[in-house]
Amino acid sequence: MDDKTKNRATMAPPAEGGRPTLKTIAFMTGLGITTVSRALKDAPDIGAETKERVRLVAKQIGYQPNRAGVRLRTGKTNVISLVLTLEEEIMGITSPMVIGITEILAGTQYHLVVTPYSSTKDPLGPIRYILDTGAADGVIISRTEPNDPRVTLLTERHLPFATHGRTEMGLIHPYHDFDNERFAYEAVRKLVDRGRRRLVLLEPPPNLTFHTHMRTGFERGLRDFGAESVSFHQVNIDYSLVAIRDAFERLMHSSDAPDGIVSGSGSGAIALIAGVEAAGKKVGDDADMVSKVPSDFLRWLRPEVMTMYEDIRIAGRELAKAVIGRIEGHPPDKLQSLSQPEFQPPVAGPARL
Question: What PROSITE patterns does the record tag this protein with (predicted)?
Answer without folding.
Answer: HTH_LACI_2
